[in-house]
Structure formats: structure tokens, C-alpha cells
Batch of 4 targets.
Target 1
Amino acid sequence: MKIWKTLALMGLTSLAISGCSTLATSHSAAVNLHANWVLLPSINNTETPQAGGRLDSITASILRVRGVDHLTMITPTTTAGSDLFETANRHNQDVALDQARQQGAEYAVAASVNEWRYKVGLDGEPAVGVSLSILDVASGQVIWSGSAARSGWSREAVSAIAQKTVNQLLSDALAHAK
């Protein structure tokens, strides 16, 4: 009987450890969901090609699901070379923020992807790490920021883990939205 209790405890412990996540955010922003929003091109800090574009797609979708009515995506300025490697960087985000000002946007969402991969090992768990910020376009001031990382089960996709992570961040960010 004691062996079954030990095995059950070990199983519960491994279950708890498998889907780990971390989250750190500032206080929720009282933003207007019906204002004009812009999604700036994400910065890809990973070795995974096109991870920033994938993050942009997921972030845009979740912003719309959470009630952002008017969302424009600004694509990064491209340079000569392959589309496989993204050109989004801090400079391109600044240029995109200037474009957002010219378009009369009120809020901008800036993102960076810090991890986007399957871990090496027997199970190959997906792992994602992202940072999001909501900016007041007129002033350029950050009015909310958050960072989260999550790993999942070996049968889950990186995009599924990314969607959960971004949804968790935006749920916190837009908790006091009107």
C-alpha cells in the first residue's frame, strides 16, 4: 500500500512540474478597447526563424478576441535578403511607432519573443518566452508591460503554448479596459 502512495505522489509531482509557467506584469492599464490600436513588429531574440511573425499573428488574434475593435499591424521595414530571417528590431519598432503616430493610433503593442522552441530531450517539450508592452502612442510611454514563459507537454505545439502565454498576458493587461 505504501508503494502505491509513493508512486501516486511521484506522479502528481511530475504532473505539476510538466506544465510550468512564469508571469510578471505591471498593474493593468485602463485602456479603451474601442480606440485605434497598432501592433508593432515583434523583435525576435531567438534562433528560431520567423518566431516574431508568429508571435505577431497570435497577439493580433487574441487582441481582437479580447475586444480591440480597430487594430492595424505594421510590418517591419525589410532589407535585402531572405524573408526567412526577420528584420524587426528596436529601431524598426521605433519607426513603426512613428507611423502609428501619423495614423492617429492611441495605443501600440510592442512585443519580443525570447524563446520559441522544443526542448531537447526525451519528450521534446515546447517552450515559449515572450514580453509584451502597451504604449501610449502620443507620448511613447509604456503604460503596461509583462513577461511570461511557459513550457508544455511533449504532445503540445509551440504555437499552442504561445497562445496560452499571450492570452494570459493580455488577460492581465486588459483586466481594467473599457
Target 2
Amino acid sequence: MKLMRKAALVMAAVPAIVFITPVGSASAHGYVSSPASRSAQCARGDVSVDLCGQAKYEPQSAEGPKGLKNCSGANGAFAPLDNDGLPWKVTNTGQTLSLTWTFTARHATRDYEYFIGGTRVGYVAGNNQQPTNPTTHTINLGGFSGRQKLYAIWNIGDTVNAFYSCIDLNINGGGGTTPPPTTTTTTPPPTTTSSTTTPPPAGGTWAANTSYATGSTVTYGGSTYRCRQAHTSLTGWEPPNVAALWEKV
């Protein structure tokens, strides 16, 4: 009788033990690690843990609905990332910037978007594929200068959510950032040289790998655009995607 009573007590205790056993965090996703985003700065201790909230421990998890323009994904645990008054380190850059995403879970990707204020300055298609880890993109910041906050957004292909990173920049602040030597690009731009770059067409259709002078016009998607700043075009810099380079006429 005593043996049966002991066995019953042991079996009754098992569900309680299972219930209180800590469950490992499933929040593993991605963030901009270079140049150091606000999340990255929190994770590496550049900003005090007391100021950073959950970003200190999970820089990759600032997740929220698609379409936001903030640093936290409207996630209260990451709200300190939206505070422009914290001592964020600023990256000096020229008119182009290379950014590297680090992933802890490689979700199928709709696309990546980069904004300064309400202007989208970069776009990379994800083709609903898993990204390589890490992944580097190069974007054009033409038309902007001085202290700016860049919103980097990773839109997931099979959920309604996106992941958000913010990078504090000083554009034309004395140099650019150098991408790490072992990174890859999701959609590598074509190599351009002086021998392959073509002159701007006179009223022709926009094309990648082409030099455009300020004031030249092109057509794209049935609309006409005027070049706002001289540049050599790359895939992903189509006129509707880079308002800093093209204006619709």
C-alpha cells in the first residue's frame, strides 16, 4: 500500500514539473549589425542595459506589423529604440552606404526597404526566398546630408510582420562604411566599368548600369522621370524606388 501511494505521488508531481520548466525563447530573427544599428549598439553594450530594454538581449527581435516607420516595430519591450534622445553612436558616411543584416532565423523574405523620413532610399527584392546570413545591401543616400535616421525594414514573405532596425547617420560626415569581407548580397548589382557604362539616353527607357546626368529624362513604367542628381544606376534603383535621384514629371 505504501509503495502504491508513493508511485501515485510521483505521477501527480510530473505535470507540475513540466508546467514550470522554463521554455527557451523562440524570438530569433534579424537586425542590421553593420553599421551598428541601435539594436546592435544595445547588444554590444554601447548603450546601457538600463536604457535599452529588451534590445540588450534580443537585438534581432524588434518585430511588428508591416508598414511602420519606427525602430521598435511598435513592440513595447523595444520602445527605447524609438528614443532619439538616447546616446546613440552616429556613423559617418558618404552618398552610398553598405548595410549588413545578421539573421538568427532566415525567414522567407518579401523584400527590404530603407527610408529616411517618408522617402524610400533603397529597395531590395527578396523573391520569397530565405536570405543568406549575413546579407549586405548597398543603398544610395543622394539628396540627403547631415544627421539622419535611416529606417531599415525586413518584410517577411509568409507573415504580416516585419523586423525593424534604425541606424543613425551623418551623411557626408567624412567617409563611408566598409562592408565586412565575408558578406554576400541578396541581389548583387552588375559590375560597372568605364568601358561598359553607357551615356544617358535622350528620353529613352531607364536602364541599370547607365550613367545619368542631372536633368536628363527617362521613361519607366509608362511615366517620365527627371534625374535630380548625377549617378550610375543599379538594379533596385528604378526611378519609383529612389525619390532622391528621380522626380516624376
Target 3
Amino acid sequence: MLENKLKKIILSLSFVAFVFTAFAATTDLSMRFLDKAELAYEQENIEEAYKYVNQALAVAKDESAQANILYFARTVYAEKLTRLLQNYDELAFIEVQTNLERYAAIENAKIKKLVRQIQSSIESKEKEESLARQQEQFNKIIETQKEATDASTKAIREQIEANNKNQAEFKDSFEKGFSRLGEAFSENAEETKRSTKVLTLSIIGIALLILIIVGLIVIVVRKGFQAQKVQQEQYVQAFKMLAANQSQTNRIMIGGVTDLYGTNATMKIAGSSTWAPAQGLPDVEFTEEDQEELKQLAIKCEEIGAKIDAATGRKNNSKNVSELVYKLSMALGLPQGMSMLYFCASMIYDAGFLGIDPELLSATNLTDEQKQALNEHVKLAEKHLEFVPKKFWEVFEDAAVKHHENIDGSGYPNGLKGDEIPQIARLIRVAETFVSLSSKRNYRETMDKETAIAKLREQPQLYDQTVVEVLDQIV
């Protein structure tokens, strides 16, 4: 009996010793991996440090050991993400995201920010690739049209050359026939001398024959000229069709948002304080050069708008605001050209945010001082508008600087009131607020259309109510 109790005590002690030894071995193993990770990090071998710190996390059981490993893991992960931001590797980034989900305690503000920056960089790259593909498609269309034109030109040229060849052959045949007629006349000269009557008849016959031949030549030459004229008209018509196709292609490359080359071939080059379309503004001839210039301007504005949205974290904000401003402009009766110019300016009205500290843009709880710093974005847009042609500058400047002015003068930066605020600024003020209210934000849920418009109507001291009424009709 005593012997059995002794055996049980010995077995229990052996089991406790085994568990303690296993736990100690696991703890020792995690610390060895951590030591290797720290050594690799000191040698600037981030990949090795990243591998060993993950192994240490996998085997760590003791809370104290886990805390030490997590502290060092944040440093290694931050360096790993920084290098991925500089030299992106899709598989490596997916692996880091997977490990961050597995070891959620690693994430801190810095790591989250680096992840967002990499994701933003990926989105920018995808947009650049999309633009490159569009340009490649445009080049292929141009090349196809050029080949079609060359083929049409070659066919017309060959037809003209064949016609000229036929005329030359006819002329040569006529000259040979006339020469043979002269030879025949010489051979019969002696015989015709014998009879005046026969000679007279021969002369008359020859004269008639010559008149007939000359008449035939005139008819053939006239028909030849008429055929050549028809061919030339076909040639001109073919090039007109090509020009029409080229114009259509240019409109397609704008993205189908508006018709740059509509019935109204004039536009205004500055803002106006009222909604009368011709209020004190000079008309501008909308030449082919202006069309191409405005097309390129729209493409450039779209690129910068995407950068602004990436910096502010407002997905598709520039696109949504600019399209709404265009629709409001057309509904208010503004000219097509001015509406398109407002569309371009509205894509980059927040360009000043590109000059604000990114950390300030991503902050959630702002102090009064930080809010004031954010408001300064309206004064920082100028250097980002240098690409805008001088004749369009005033519209773009009004959009970027004055879109936070209020009807009652309580806005910034100049405290403008009512009609002192340019058209483009009042349009953006309404469109931006509506898009914001209709979009999901971290601090509130999305509003439906009726609630958002009701909110705008409740604040006539801030928003132009004429624009709000038109907004209610078109959305």
C-alpha cells in the first residue's frame, strides 16, 4: 500500500518536472528567435529580422516574453513596410497583412499609416496604368484611321493615274490615225488632181472627218475632266469623313462626360456673380486649338483630382463634385463651354490640401489650431495650378480660393457676401456639401437625398438657395 502511494507521488513529480521543462524550453526558444531577430536588425538585414521575429511570436507562451517580442516586432514591421512603400512587392505585402491579422497586437498608428500609404500607392499606380491603356487604345485608333486614309488615298491616286493613262493612249491613237490619213491623202493626190470634183468631195469628206474626230476628242476630254472632278470631290469627302471621325475620337477620350464641341462654340473665361450667362464677360472663339487645349486640361485635372482624393481619404470626391457642378451649370442655363470649364476647375478645387501635412489630414480629433491650419488650404493652391492656361486662370483661382465663402459673409478667407461670391465658388459650396452628406464618413452615416437637401435648405445663410432648388430637381 505504501509502495503504491510512493509510486503515484514519483509519477506526479515527474509529470510536473516534464511540464516545467517543456515550458522553459518554449520560452528559451522564443528568446533565441528574438535574439536572432535583434542581431539581424542591427546588421540591417530586415528580411531575416522579420522572419525571426515572426518565429518568436509563434512559439512565445509567456506574457512577459510576448510583450518584449511585440515591442521589437513593431519596429521590424514598420521598417519592413517602409521598404515595401519604396519598392512594392505584392506577395510580401499580402504576407505582412496576413501576419498583422494573426498578431493584431503588433499594429500601432505608424504601422496603420504605412499600410494605408502602400494601398494608396497601389491605387495611384492602377490609375496610371489605366490612363496608359486608354492612351494606347487612342493611338491604335489613330493608327487604324491613318491606315484607312492611306489606303483610300492610294486607291484614288491609282484611279486618277489609270484615267490619265487612258487619255494618253487615246491621244496617241488619234495622232497615229491622223498621220495615216495624211499618208493616204498624199498617195491619192495624183489621182485627185485628175478630177476637181473628186478632190473637192475628198476635201469636204476629210474636213467632216476632222470635225467629227475633234468633236469626239472634245467630248472625251470633257468627260475625263468631269470624272476627275468627281474623283477629287470623293477625295475631299473622304478626308472630311476622316476629320469627323477624328473629332469623335477626341470626344471619346474625354470620357463622355460632356460635349466639348456642342452647338455653343463660345465660352466665358471668368467667374460671374449672377446666374445670367452673359453677365459682363467677353466671348472667346472656341477654335480647334482651344478644343484640344481644354481636352488636355480635363485629363490633367483628373490626374490631380485623384491625388487630392488619395491625400484626403475621400474616394471619388473630385469626380463626384465636378460632375454635379457640370449638371448644375447646364440646368442653370450657363453656356456649354463655361459648364465644361467649371467641370475642370471643380476637379481640383481642393488642390491646396496637397500642401498640408498628411498626418494632419488623417487626424480624427483636431484642436482649434489644427482646424485653422487646415483652413489655410485655400491659400496653398496656387503652385498646383501653374499648368492652367492664363485665359482660364481666374475661374480656377475662384474655385480653389473662394469655395468656403458663405452667403452671409461668415465664410473664409475673405468673408465675401451674396453676389460677391463667384458662380463657380457657390456651385462647389453646394455640390461639395451635398456629396459629403450623401457619402459615408467615419463620424456619421450616409444621408438620403431628401434629408441632405433639407439640410441645405435649413441654412440659407451658407448656401445659394437658387442652386439648392436646381439641385433638388436634377438629383
Target 4
Amino acid sequence: MLRANNLAKKGLGTTSPNPIVGAIIIDQNGVEISNGFHAGGDHAEIVALKNARAKGVQDFTNCTLLVTLEPCNHHGKTPPCSEALIQAGIKNVVFAVSDPHLIASGGANKLRDAGIEVVAGIQNDYVAYTNRAWLHKIKHQRPWIVSKIAATIDGKIAALDGTSKWITSQEARFDVAHIRNQSDAIVTSTATVLADNPQLTPRFPSESQVLPRSSNPARVVMGNSAIPNEFKIHENEAETVFLNSHDFSELVELGRSREWNQMMVEAGSRFNTALLQADLVDEFVIYMAPSILGAGKNFIADLGITSLANRKVLNFGEVSRVGNDLRVSLFVNHPEFSEIFNKTLSWGGAK
């Protein structure tokens, strides 16, 4: 199941509004026949079946399908996976996470009614973590919001003179490109655009093996300041949505209406502070460089907290080394994911 989960990760950023899913078909001896993952077209189960048939396998009566999410049970862009598995004659189905979607759920019961043995909940915690953006969207009706921070060890994102390029290493910036590529939208402020003139698109070395997307994630720019036409944000490498507002409810509604799974924030301290105060940050990913500025701009500004008893408590997620930097994931209001990393200090990374 963990291997199927790693396959599912390959679809991050390509499946919205659907979840990421990985699937593996094994024979009666536990030998892998084929695998597949969802990348915006056929569902993972269908890809695995097609790959098996391409190898000449037609009889699945002694086979087991392992899949990260309960097979769907509705007609959407594609027919129900539950029907395809029944027609294929699969003997056993093992899945990790039950489908919480009111329309798509019910696949397990349909498979059982057809005489297929079904086992649920295998490696549920790891798979739920990997698919956290979609699961959060279904439960809370808004995208998962992750904010990326590049800071010195003392929490500075810029020096007193405003310089910030580059605090962290090239390897860290490459890792950030993966998070961008796995997101449906990248959110920033007009202040950040005017200060840094960012392109806000995933950029990888030519030799990297990254699943190509049909288009780059959308760019969302919030604020009322005008952006000159020569700035990179106007270039056509990605769609750009300008929200001439500081009202985060408009950002949430945009994400909801577009059915995005994940929005990534790349902005300054004022924006991140306001977003945190609005209780709209689900995860911080902080790239911490082994350097000290002492003075400069903090990545979070004054929260109005005057007592230690009122401090904002976060939960550690993955902690790992990226180049010469430390990559720290912190969950806001999601302690359930922190429990996973009590078992292991490093698990998977953005890639």
C-alpha cells in the first residue's frame, strides 16, 4: 500500500478536482502484475487494468487490487471503477481510505455485493496525509492552503535593506518548484509582486523527471495596487487572476468555485500574518537557512499576543534536510498529521 501511495504522489497537481490515487494489481503469489495512478484521465484502477491487459493478462480471478482510495461508485468524467473491477473479475480489493464524497462513495459495498472480498483501512494514516488536500477540500469545502517560507535560522525573510535573494539554497528552490507543481494555484500579494517581480511558475532543470502538466498552476494576486505591464506576472506562462481586494473570503470562494485541491501562498509577513489570523493557513513549509541576520523582516508580524499562555501552537510534520537548509513542515489545527511523524522523522519529501 505504501508503494501505491508513492505512485499516487506522481499525480499531485494534475487531478483537481479529483483526488490522487495509486493502484497495484498482484497475483495470487503476491507478485506485482501492473500498476497505475490517476493523472487527470483514467482513474488509477483503470490504468492498472489497462496496463495488465497490455501485458497479455486477461484473467483476474485470482488477483488482488491494492488502491489508496475506495473505488468510486458513480458516473463522472469516467464510469464507476467499482463496475470495471466487477467486470474484470478481480477477486480481492484492499484500500486505505474510505471515499468521503457523498456522490462517489459506496464502492466497497457494491464490490462486496458482487462477491469480491474487500479489506479497508490499510495504512490509512499515511495515505490520508498524502491525500490531505483533497480530503480537506471535501470536508471543509475549501482548498488546503500551504504557505511557503524561506527564512534564516532566526526567522528573517529579508534584511533591513530589503534584500532577500537568496536566503536559501538552490536545492531548496528546486524543492519549492515541486510544491508549486503540486498545487492548483499560487497566491501572492501585490506588495510581493512589486517588491520581487516573481514569475511564480514551477521551473525545473532540464534533466528532472517531473510529470508534465497540461498547464501551470494559476497565479492569484490579491491587493489594490496596480502592477506595471512589464512585470513577469503578466506573462502568459500561467493564468493570472487579480483579486482587487484584501478580503480572504473572496480568495476562499475563488478556490471553492474552481474546485482547487491546494493553494500555495508565497507572500510577505503582512499577508501571512493576516492569513494566519483568519485561520486560513493549514500548513507552513519553512525552508530554514543556517544563517543569522539579527535584524530584518520576520516571516510573521505582530499577532497581538502578549502572554506565552496565548501563543499559537502548531504541530510538527516532516523535518528533513534539503541541500544546506532545513525543511520543516508545520500543521495549523491538524494535529492528526503530526502523529504520523512521531513514527518517523522524515517521510517522502515534496518529491
